[in-house]
TrEMBL record:
Organism for this UniProt entry: Neobacillus rhizophilus
Domain of life: Bacteria
Keywords per UniProt: Cell inner membrane, Cell membrane, Membrane, Transmembrane, Transmembrane helix, Transport
Residues annotated as transmembrane: 12-31, 37-59, 71-89, 95-113, 134-153, 159-183, 204-226, 238-258, 265-285, 291-312, 332-352, 358-377
Gene3D superfamilies the UniProt entry points to: MFS general substrate transporter like domains
GO cellular component: plasma membrane
Compartments it resides in: Cell inner membrane
Name the UniProt record assigns to this protein: MFS transporter
Keyword Membrane: yes
Domain Major facilitator superfamily associated: 6-360
Pfam families in the cross-refs: MFS_1_like
Amino acid sequence: MNTQRWMSSQFFTFFLTWGVFLPYWTGWMIHIKGISISQASLIMSLGLVVRGLSTLFVYPYFSGMFSSRTLLNGMAIGTFLSMLCYIPANSYSSLLMVTLLLNLFYPTLMPALDTAAGVLVQSKQLKHYGRSRSWGSIGFVASGMVLTVFTGALGDVVIFWSLLLGTIVLVGLGLMPAPLVLSEKPQPNQTKRARMLNLFRIKHFGLVLAIVILLQAAHATYYTYGYIFLQEIHSPKYLIGLILNIAVIAEIIFFLIADRYFQRFSTGFLLALSSLGSTVRWILVFAFPNVIVFSISQILHALSFAMCHYAFMKYLIKNIPHLQIPNAQGMYSALALSWSTAVFTIFGGYLYEIEPRFAYIGMIVCSIPSMVLALVYRKLEK
């Protein structure tokens, strides 16, 4: 088996679905299910809370009982069954309940895949993490490009059916052979030693975690309101998907070249540069609320998101023991990708209803402190 190809196909398939869910799901609930922006904002925020609970507690717990492959397959099946529950859901309360159910399974695939990649890199079976991860970004772009055509022709109703089809593919991929190391069940005595709080005994883990939490939280407005903000600034509907995917194309390019050009830089330097790119990005959108500048600012996603994620993985692979990787990934996913984003989604929604571009400038309350902490960490790691 070609492990590099297996990991790439896993990332590609998951992000093929994520490219539908992340930018389009809020709009689908608003336009097709008929709920308000504030209701959709609350649903997505509460979904992020459940996502955080699942990735912080449920995923690490079961990772101590089952192999990585079993967990990946189980979460894929749970995602598919949750998606089916959306079909009869038409009220605010029913949409909320189904979204909470979905967030128990679906987002945990992300830390599970990164955990698998980390284990494969540490066991010398995966040579280029960045190259495999770039295929995830390619999948994200591919789904967005295709979906743009169909939403333009048939309307937002196709968003749901596209995501459902993607989850079917995700389940099917789980039937394929996987690297043997991912089928190994953890031993009970090993699980007892891998306690989550022990992560904070690892040098600078708490500081690095605080930096990536702030950096990922700064994307809350973009992830939740980017689709409707482009409509607000009068972007042609057939171009919205293309504009959103500029960020992912920049992400793809970064991950393709990261192992070659950025491996030699320290984690602190990469995090500081990521913070600077994030700050500039949100200032540009606030200062120049038009389609052209928004499109240009999308290039900075390579710094604000991709470099942040790469820097954390670089730190993880170098400093975190094998048994603690699921705990570290669960904590990163819960605190950086879920709960912090949930808090700032509500904050961004409040600002958005006052003035849409205020929601973007508000994100520098995360990016500027992260820059200060990254510069501190850069000095400490020397």
